[in-house]
């Protein structure tokens, strides 16, 4: 094995003026070389790898981003989430934003219903507070989830505009409340090279039922997270590894539907 090959290549980047770019590119070279050596990669296998990456690029357009899906299914997105999230045990953990977030949803009144589809009714409620237990008033809470057919509004022309998307403010006590329906599990898009990779490697494409939350308040770190249904068959095998035990919730039966009581804790921004 000729170790000097890797050294020669990293040295070729030694005049890179930007220290961070140099660090990232040289680490990438070291790990790529180590990877190829570890698996004794053949020319034919790397050709297949190049064909796969080419097909992944060709599947991308203004709406579809197959490389993000690749990052998600390889667990790289959730590793980045782990690297970049706070590690304060008192605060709510983050989870993946996913590709279906939409800005510009109309704000709804406290307790409004975001569902225009039939489904099992759920009352979601709780508080937003800081890590000292102080309520955060007027926090912006954005939520989005799939309809019972497993599709988000935006993927499905048959759903009314804004279906199952909500934008709320916490009240003076930091409380939020809204009505919706129980989310369902759904497959990530499988009609591209990432879907073929999952099939070829014996993996399913399902995300367990969840509802996304994004919470923003002045003076606090933004929180992007999701609540996962404890009774979902895929809760322990999420195709994109977004589930964290602290984000798994029970849907408690209540008056012909369910109730989810869930509080969120934000981290105050460090003062400059
Ligand atoms: C989502 O939860 O919306 C999602 C996340 C990653 C890939 C596909 C979908
Ligand atoms: Fe989702």
TrEMBL record:
Gene Ontology molecular function terms on file: catechol 1,2-dioxygenase activity; ferric iron binding
Cofactors named for this entry: Fe(3+)
Alphabetical list of InterPro entries matching this protein: 1_2-HQD/HQD, Catechol_dOase_N, Intradiol_dOase_C, Intradiol_dOase_core, Intradiol_RC_Dioxygenase
A biological process term (GO) from this entry: catechol-containing compound metabolic process
Protein name stated in the entry: Intradiol ring-cleavage dioxygenase
Residue ranges constituting the Intradiol ring-cleavage dioxygenases domain according to the UniProt record: 124-152
Family as reported in the entry's similarity comment: Belongs to the intradiol ring-cleavage dioxygenase family.
CDD domains registered for this protein in UniProt: 1_2-HQD
Keyword terms: Dioxygenase, Iron, Metal-binding, Oxidoreductase
PROSITE patterns: INTRADIOL_DIOXYGENAS
A UniProt-annotated Pfam family: Dioxygenase_N
